[in-house]
């Protein structure tokens, strides 16, 4: 009886070995690749992790934005520089994804919009200009992304532009150097304006005016010229109070230089936004006309 059991077990092992030996090496490699693909987590790709760190740095810079220009500018600048690193990581690790592209674009748009909102509060008379820039930036990139995905297909990247549609857009998105310079200079211009709101009496005359007790109680929220130290920092010798005291004594030379050098490139970037929005509108209209023609033929 025991011998019969051993024979059955031996036959089962032989059949299992035969089944395994029938799988070719290529099929085994394919199975391993399929298993690896099933285990991939898009949200934990290296470029996406860099994108999450940009979101964290942006929130940190917004926290320091009203009263700590040095800290805010540093965090904001690091977040912007990481914008170039995530694209390099995506190509290096072969981890380019639609989610990563959208995350990158949304982070860029929200980061710039938050800074422009602060500038609107710092200079209310010019708020309509900053609001217009926010609207143009959001509308241009949303329409371009939507047109690319709806007309070009879900696998189409928004950075792959047909030169026959727009030579300017093709050069803007094809040359990594041009794209990096335009985006960096655009952010540098607004960072320079942000620093000037703390340091330039020419742009912010209220920096020269002493703040009375009555003004403290009616200070405009978000205005660097009218902080409320008493309500925020109980001790005038706290680190926050000292930083705020130094804030209004920033040297304006470098902010003026940064703003002046980056202004032409920033203006070109806004022109590109207009071209991008117009071309996306035309592309969507072409799709509408094609759909209407197809419906009439039915």
From TrEMBL:
Per the record, the major location class is: membrane
Biased-composition ranges for Polar residues?
A: 18-27
Q: Which GO terms describe its molecular function?
A: CDP-diacylglycerol-inositol 3-phosphatidyltransferase activity
Region entry Disordered, spans: 1-35
Protein family according to the UniProt entry: Belongs to the CDP-alcohol phosphatidyltransferase class-I family.
Q: What is the lineage of its organism?
A: Eukaryota, Fungi, Dikarya, Ascomycota, Pezizomycotina
Q: Which GO terms describe its biological process?
A: phosphatidylinositol biosynthetic process
Q: What is this protein called?
A: CDP-alcohol phosphatidyltransferase
| Membrane topology qualifier | Multi-pass membrane protein
One of the Pfam families matching this protein, by short name: CDP-OH_P_transf
InterPro entries referenced in this protein's UniProt entry, alphabetically: CDP-OH_P_trans, CDP-OH_PTrfase_TM_dom, CDP_ALCOHOL_P_TRANSF_CS
Native source organism of the sequence = Penicillium roqueforti (strain FM164)
- What keywords sit in the KW lines? Lipid metabolism, Membrane, Phospholipid metabolism, Transferase, Transmembrane, Transmembrane helix
Annotated localization: Membrane
The membrane-spanning stretches of this chain are 42-65, 170-196, 253-272
Give any Gene Ontology cellular component.
membrane
């Amino acid at each position: 009886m025991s011998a019969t059991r051993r024979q059955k077990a031996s036959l089962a092992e032989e059949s299992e070995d035969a089944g395994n030996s029938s799988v070719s090496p290529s099929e085994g490699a394919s199975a391993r690749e399929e298993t690896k693909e099933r285990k991939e987590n898009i949200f934990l790709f290296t470029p996406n992790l860099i994108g999450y760190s940009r979101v964290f740095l942006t929130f940190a810079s917004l926290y320091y934005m009203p009263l700590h220009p040095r800290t805010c500018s540093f965090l904001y600048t690091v977040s912007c520089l990481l914008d170039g690193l995530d694209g390099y990581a995506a190509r290096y690790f072969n981890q380019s994804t639609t989610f990563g592209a959208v995350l990158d674009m949304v982070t860029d748009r929200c980061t710039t919009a938050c800074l422009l909102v602060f500038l609107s509060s710092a200079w209310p008379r010019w708020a309509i200009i900053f609001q217009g820039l926010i609207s143009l930036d959001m509308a241009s990139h949303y329409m371009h992304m939507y047109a690319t995905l709806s007309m070009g297909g879900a696998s189409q990247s928004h950075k792959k532009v047909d030169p026959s549609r727009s030579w300017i857009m093709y050069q803007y998105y094809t040359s990594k150097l041009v794209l990096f310079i335009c985006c960096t200079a655009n952010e540098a211009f607004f960072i320079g304006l942000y620093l000037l709101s703390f340091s330039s009496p020419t742009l912010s005359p209220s920096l020269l005016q002493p703040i009375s007790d009555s003004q403290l109680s009616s200070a405009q929220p978000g205005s660097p010229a009218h902080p409320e130290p008493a309500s925020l920092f109980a001790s005038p010798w706290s680190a926050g109070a000292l930083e705020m005291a130094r804030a209004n004594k920033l040297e304006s030379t470098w902010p003026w230089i940064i703003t002046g050098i980056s202004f032409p490139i920033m203006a070109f970037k806004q022109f590109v936004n207009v071209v991008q929005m117009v071309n996306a509108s035309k592309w969507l209209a072409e799709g509408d006309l094609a759909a209407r023609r197809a419906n009439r033929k039915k």
